[in-house]
Amino acid sequence: MAQQRTRIQLVNREIILSAALEVFATHGFRGATVDQIAARAEMSKPNLLYYFRRKQDIYRAVLEHTLDDWLAPLAAIDRDGDPIEELRRYITLKLQMSAENPAASRLFANEVLAGAPVIGDFLKTRLRELVHEKAGVVRAWVGEGRLAPVDPTHLIFMIWAVTQHYADFDVQVRAVLGSQVDKPGFHEQTAQAVLTIVLNGIRPRD
Amino acid sequence: MAQQRTRIQLVNREIILSAALEVFATHGFRGATVDQIAARAEMSKPNLLYYFRRKQDIYRAVLEHTLDDWLAPLAAIDRDGDPIEELRRYITLKLQMSAENPAASRLFANEVLAGAPVIGDFLKTRLRELVHEKAGVVRAWVGEGRLAPVDPTHLIFMIWAVTQHYADFDVQVRAVLGSQVDKPGFHEQTAQAVLTIVLNGIRPRD
DNA sequence: CGGATTCTTGACTATTTGGTCAAAACCGAG
DNA sequence: CTCGGTTTTGACCAAATAGTCAAGAATCCG
């Protein structure tokens, strides 16, 4: 009974996680309420608490549910590929994720803004190691003259900042750009603009 | 009596705004509590509510207190200056503000993440106008061949994203970089890295 | 079908939280 | 010092919120 998952359980846990993602992404852990999540999941609060006994449990589950996806694109950067092409792919992938799942980006933003009480360990271990590894790759590329001399870690931060900005600050972007955000081709135009600047910024000059 | 401000009032309002900035910046409006703010301001809750009658009033006051400063650097971009130098100055100034007053940056981040319920109008009017004006300046520079062909609005977004990232995601930056964040010269090194990539990214190529 | 198990929820509790109020403490001008 | 206004706070209230519980409804399995 402990680990057994019925079909209903699988379905309902998914519904809850998806509802909770939206609510936590908008208001953060402290600002979100269990009632809000239950309402969005269209079930009673006690029913929701039947699947996750505490608010914390839902929050942790949502975070874990998203953490791995988040790292995948960075992990995929290949030391043996062409530097500009690898970074183009990385930036494109991150922009795509921000566009397709902005709530995930906002969830992290809220968690980090609050001081990363839950994912602090993750940041200091797995994330840190991965960044150092990939910074090493970039550093090697720079050493071979295949990239302009750039600080590898700050380059990674910059890519995170820019790509996640379009998810986290969507409301601001909309306020400035208006309806054109929803026009087809907007994401491509954004990708084009970001790629132009960043890739030109790191392309080796002679 | 209505508008009269005694010395004590001026002092205490400052203390409250400063305490509230920290709390709202960390937990957002909904996640922050009046008790937390009162504790940080080292006064009783009723005393705090003597100066600001509602939580909303404190929040609005803190936001307004910070909004104008936030726009100043962008407003200072001068069409008649050298494009690269103007943007270097803008980026440097924004990075400096993020370093000196990270709480202000986080306050906005939280507000925008929550859907900008309070500053939504501001974003759609004053911010929008200012961005369009300065985008026009950048567009003119590009037209004159003094900058590489870049989308002006996305350039502004990119600068915001990168500069504010170091304030908003400070915890993450620290997790990855460790204690070196506190070493003297870190901010200069960051500015160097950011300026190198962005400015090279938009410098005209021939 | 029928009994055991799983799922669902109305009603409830304890705690937290935003906000009030009246009275006490404080302060500053005469 | 004294008196009027200002500031401060302990005690309180109502609403919101996390979480419980027992009992009813649905589902599964033989």
Report the span from N to C terminus of chain A.
Answer: 67 Å
Which runs of chain A of at least 5 residues are low in confidence (pLDDT < 50)? none
**Count of DSSP helices of chain A?**
10
Quick one: overall form of chain A?
globular
How do the SSEs of chain A run, as a string of H and E? Answer: HHHHHHHHHH
- What is the number of beta strands of chain A? 0
| Largest interface, C-beta closer than 8 angstroms, per-chain residues | A-B, 59 and 59 residues
The helix fraction of chain A, in percent, is over 70%
The major beta sheet of chain A can be summarized as: none
Describe this structure in words.
The structure is a homodimer of 206-residue chains. Chain A is mainly α and 206 residues long. The first copy, chain A, has helices at residues 7-31, 34-41, 45-51, 55-75, 83-100, 102-113, 120-143, 152-168, 170-177, 186-202. Chain A starts with 6 loop residues before the first helix and ends with a helix. In chain A, helix 5 (83-100) runs antiparallel to helix 10 (186-202). Chain A is built from ten helices and no strands. Chains A and B meet through helix 1, helix 6, helix 7, helix 8 and helix 9 of A and helix 1, helix 6, helix 7, helix 8 and helix 9 of B. The first copy, chain A, binds a DNA duplex (30 and 30 nucleotides) through helix 1 and helix 3.
